[in-house]
Amino acid sequence: MPRKTIAFDVATTAFLSRRARYDFRMLIRPIPLFLLLLVAGCASTSTYSVSLKNQTPRPITAVMTKDGPPFEKGWASPEDVAADRILPDEVSGLQVIPEGKTGTNNGLSGQFDKGTHAVLRVYDGKPLPSEMLRTKPGRSRVDIVLKPGENRFVARETADGLIVEPVVP
């Protein structure tokens, strides 16, 4: 009799372990799909166009960048240039705008993780990337969060420094 009990226990254990392995595989199977959806759901593609009229008495420098991931050459910041992640010539969104002229950047597309924004940085004058790093938002730098689509601005000089205002159609 003890042998039957042992045989039954062994058979039950084998059955349960196969079932446990099956249940475990069923639990794990959707994880890669979930991770793929999680990663794919985090980034979206947006396109931005910017027009900036310079009404200051000197040139200004405009840089279209992002305030978060993922890194893209066209959206590289002065910090990326200074860190040698990219050459200044490869940055699509960097432009010096002479006084009285309008600079445009049409149709710059990018991937934006949740919480990442397109940002237009406007610097007074023609600073080098190393000088841009030292310039924080204030009298000589204005940062503006862009909206997807067309964005139109005008830059002016006031007693408080550089200001950039939206153009209302």
**Gyration radius, rounded:** 28 Å
Which structural class is indicated by helix and strand composition?
Answer: alpha+beta
Annotation, overall tally of beta strands:
8
Number of helices: 4
Largest sheet at a glance? Answer: 4 strands, mixed
The succession of helices and strands, N to C, reads HHEEHEEEHEEE
Average pLDDT confidence is 84
Percent of residues in β-strands: 35-45%
* Low-confidence region ranges: none
Q: State the helicity in percent bands.
A: 25-40%
Beginning-to-end CA distance, first to last residue: 94 Å
Strand order of the largest sheet: 4-1-7-8
As an assembly, this protein is: single chain
> What's the overall geometry?
elongated
Quick synopsis:
30% of the residues lie in helices and 37% in strands.
Topology:
Blueprint: H1 2-28, H2 31-42, E1 43-54, E2 60-66, H3 78-82, E3 94-97, E4 102-113, E5 118-124, H4 129-134, E6 141-145, E7 149-158, E8 161-166
Parallel strand pairs: 1-7
Antiparallel strand pairs: 1-4, 2-3, 2-5, 5-6, 7-8
Structure in words:
The chain is of the alpha+beta class and 169 residues long. It has four helices and eight strands. The chain has helices at residues 2-28, 31-42, 78-82, 129-134, and strands at residues 43-54, 60-66, 94-97, 102-113, 118-124, 141-145, 149-158, 161-166. It has a four-stranded mixed β-sheet. It has a four-stranded antiparallel β-sheet with strand order 3-2-5-6, with no helix packed on it. Strand 7 and strand 8 form a beta hairpin.
